[in-house]
TrEMBL record, chains A, B:
Pathway connected to this protein: Amino-acid biosynthesis; L-methionine biosynthesis via de novo pathway; L-homoserine from L-aspartate: step 1/3; Amino-acid biosynthesis; L-lysine biosynthesis via DAP pathway; (S)-tetrahydrodipicolinate from L-aspartate: step 1/4; Amino-acid biosynthesis; L-threonine biosynthesis; L-threonine from L-aspartate: step 1/5
Keyword Repressor belongs to the record: no
GO molecular function: aspartate kinase activity; ATP binding
Upper lineage: Bacteria, Pseudomonadati, Pseudomonadota, Alphaproteobacteria, Hyphomicrobiales
Binding-site positions, substrate: T47, E90
Name this protein carries in UniProt: Aspartokinase
ACT domain boundaries: 290-365, 371-432
Keywords carried by this UniProt record: Amino-acid biosynthesis, ATP-binding, Kinase, Lysine biosynthesis, Nucleotide-binding, Transferase
Record flagged with keyword ATP-binding: yes
Domain of life: Bacteria
A matching Pfam family: ACT
InterPro entries: AceGlu_kinase-like_sf, ACT-like_dom_sf, ACT_Aspartokinase, ACT_dom, AKii-LysC-BS, Asp/Glu/Uridylate_kinase, Asp_kin_monofn, Asp_kinase
Coiled coil (UniProt feature): none
EC numbers on record: 2.7.2.4
Source organism (scientific name): Methyloligella halotolerans
Amino acid sequence: MALLVLKFGGTSVADIDKIRNAARHVKREIDAGNRCAVVVSAMAGQTNQLIAWVEDAARGRAANVDGHRENGESQGYDACEYDAVVSSGEQVTAGLLALVLQSLGVKARSWQGWQIPLNTDPVHSKARITGIQGDALRGQVLDGEVAVVAGFQGIAPDGRIATLGRGGSDTSAVALAAALSADRCDIYTDVDGVYTTDPRIVPQAQRMNRISYEEMLEMASQGAKVLQTRSVELAMQRSVPVLVRSSFDDADQDASADLAELGTLVCEEDEIVEQKVVSGIAYAPDEAKVTLIKVADKPGVAAGVFGPLAEANINVDMIVQNVSEDGRYTDLTFTVQSADLDRALDVLRSKKDEIGYGDLDGSTNVAKVSAIGVGMRSHAGVAAQMFHALSEKGINIQAISTSEIKISILIDAAYAELAVRTLHTLFGLDSR
Amino acid sequence: MALLVLKFGGTSVADIDKIRNAARHVKREIDAGNRCAVVVSAMAGQTNQLIAWVEDAARGRAANVDGHRENGESQGYDACEYDAVVSSGEQVTAGLLALVLQSLGVKARSWQGWQIPLNTDPVHSKARITGIQGDALRGQVLDGEVAVVAGFQGIAPDGRIATLGRGGSDTSAVALAAALSADRCDIYTDVDGVYTTDPRIVPQAQRMNRISYEEMLEMASQGAKVLQTRSVELAMQRSVPVLVRSSFDDADQDASADLAELGTLVCEEDEIVEQKVVSGIAYAPDEAKVTLIKVADKPGVAAGVFGPLAEANINVDMIVQNVSEDGRYTDLTFTVQSADLDRALDVLRSKKDEIGYGDLDGSTNVAKVSAIGVGMRSHAGVAAQMFHALSEKGINIQAISTSEIKISILIDAAYAELAVRTLHTLFGLDSR
């Protein structure tokens, strides 16, 4: 007997038929003698409908600045009421899945965040989990009753519902798995695992059997949007093995099948036997490059540039500063999300006098490609191999950034797919 | 300053524009210096959508009779999960109305049943309120913050959400008004009050300024479906004045206007100054008549007939037993809802031997018309007046039943509208 937490995302519970399919996955585990808690998202589309209502309801608020002020006011509405409305989506799915399970003869009961309780900090609409008092729930689960938990929500210190922010259901699931000391957290989603790169670009991409938490964090933040970053951080911190698998696989297949056949297991580095040097190639097309030309090469300039950008809530990714030729001026290049480019340029123009630069240049015509692998730690020369292969294809590298387990390059967007294919082959990731 | 409970039904909060209109009613009261708690239903249509999902989710349940069994199983699904799903409709409206109020500069906070808490008995999906611990809510309201309460729901002793059954939001509102010792409970709905009879039948029907609880109970159970019967019983028991008014009236009209101009006040009998003998004429077209011919005239026969009907959950209304001519046999006539007629006949046919009757006859071709008025208590001859007027129009009375404040007659359905118009004129209810 294993204690499992299963999580189904919005597309996996989009209608009653899909909820029925999810229930068959749960029933298979129960029939195999396992004990289950299930975390569900809202039915796909419901959350957007609820948010649209909230935004419509709060319309006209700006004209009433003397009104009631609360947390989250900056979004233009009271985050506490946003939470009360939007959390209802997961509440509905949890009840419906419990009903379907009962219709299949499986004992089940729905749990909302406040019923467990799953406690959060007071930051409504972007709350973080502070603790789960899971004893009652665990007792029921060990007793053979499936606990169907509304994801994405908990109860804040003010006694009101708090949501965890978009994608928070993954985090709910991992946190619950940790609190219950579950043997594994299975994330059922609309893909069947984590691939060595985007299969739409490289048809030879392979599903990984296993990936370490660290690599998954780099893959996820690079655009392999399978698992929410916070959930991976939490899984790493609490050593929760997470299996990413498809909810659209045959729900009746043997529960005891080899995990490697079912999806990708995100786990500790030392549980991965045949570790490659590079595990995967990530690709972020939505990058934009900003270059400040002829910036004074002196202390305080970086703060002058990046401080105002941070205040404007613009995330800066790769930063490259060339060595100054004359010791007086240099060029400063960095990347932001494409969607933030115009705002970033506006901020920098408004600060031109304080920063002091010659010219400002922005371009969305770039892509970031990264090679990721914990094996890099013990293998020198990975970067050299990479640059050599790309130069052979005539691909010019505009910027480079590295971490212990990742090498990222910024290149002309036109060459992005060629670069991904080249690196995928170079590091032996193509399937035979 | 008055402490008011305002209740808005589903059609009055059907979309964000209607919610905004409801908010303007609330703001008008706040601007006039009053303190408000507001009870809301789900947006019109939402509850039906949620129930449809529940029924779809529970489909196939009948094939799994060995499965999990709970309260409410007789409906084919677990009432506890039904409650978890369906209660989300009111939760959404409460949050949205709070947001709209804030956008108008009015301090507001939503409250779900479990947050107040509003306690219920354990009968999920048809729960009754057992108590309201309204101190925290009352404190906030007296402090000037509008409490927007999700109607139709509370928390059961098992710590789970319980709904009060269809129309339960009226009961939520009256119970909250009683718990807060509110000065009045205003029910905003899609009609502007209670009329002396159905204005679609009698164009001269008038809106009543006031009606006693007792009369309202008779009117409501007779088909004037403005207020849920349980809410009127509760208002009577706890002496809560209830004002029925239209949510589509001009929301900005003077809050201190004469109540008589705003709608119909349901109140104690002695607060009604100019009491007429008959206050209103009610009309129930959906009646069916059942006659058992040649039934033995001996003790126990009535129990033999009505026991099995009660077991089959069929409500019997008017019962007439003729005096037996020969002391041995008699005829027994009673009415049921039209929708129940076939089931009632089936039950009686299956019990023919036990009951012992000559023949069985059923007809939906009848209507019930009632004259209602607390003034009848002190006025003899109302029934005689009524029968005389009807006989002058050639209307044959098939059955009669009376209470202290009501006389009901059963007639051929073809004459129902003529009978209503005749009685409305007879008792001086036509507007000039």
